[in-house]
Amino acid sequence: MFNDIGPLEVVTLVVLAVLVFGPDKLPKVIQDITRTIRKIREFSESAKQDIRGELGPEFKDFEFEDLNPKTFIRKQLDNDELGLKEIRNGFDLKKEMAEVTDAVHGREAESSSSSGASGSSGGRVDMTKKPEEPGKDDRPPFDADAT
């Protein structure tokens, strides 16, 4: 419950509590707080039991923690009635990304070699030259006035 409270924060809270309530009232305040927390837990457990009783025997395994979406998905993935592990194992994202990367690098190498043969350097467009004929290249001609 208090996993992310460090020792410095605990000392600060204790000092603050002593300053606010005083050393003589502090034990009574702590008892009142623990009693209130205990009552709240009892109330929530009785409410959970009432809800489970009202839902009927079909929901006897129902846990309120399953209403948390992360817990629900984790439970469903562990159950694997739908064969999700087969789907997940059949789809290798790293392999797919490597194939896409290779394809992109392959296309870049081809386009840079063809553009290098046409006279432009490093894939840049030379603004001083006239655009090439559309039949030679798949790209439409460059229109300097349009930009």
TrEMBL record:
InterPro entries noted in UniProt: TatA/B/E (IPR003369), TatB (IPR018448)
Protein localization: Cell membrane; Membrane
Pfam family, one: TatA_B_E
GO MF annotation terms: protein transmembrane transporter activity
Region span, Disordered: 102-147
GO terms, biological process: protein transport by the Tat complex
GO terms under cellular component: TAT protein transport complex
Topology versus the membrane: Single-pass membrane protein
Entry keyword set: Cell membrane, Membrane, Protein transport, Translocation, Transmembrane, Transmembrane helix, Transport
Comp. bias regions, Basic and acidic residues: 126-147
NCBIfam families: PRK01371.1-1, PRK01371.1-4
Family: Belongs to the TatB family.
Function, in words: Part of the twin-arginine translocation (Tat) system that transports large folded proteins containing a characteristic twin-arginine motif in their signal peptide across membranes. Together with TatC, TatB is part of a receptor directly interacting with Tat signal peptides. TatB may form an oligomeric binding site that transiently accommodates folded Tat precursor proteins before their translocation.
HAMAP family: TatB (MF_00237)
Subunit structure: The Tat system comprises two distinct complexes: a TatABC complex, containing multiple copies of TatA, TatB and TatC subunits, and a separate TatA complex, containing only TatA subunits. Substrates initially bind to the TatABC complex, which probably triggers association of the separate TatA complex to form the active translocon.
Protein name per the record: Sec-independent protein translocase protein TatB
Species this chain originates from: Streptomyces lincolnensis
Gene assigned in the entry: tatB
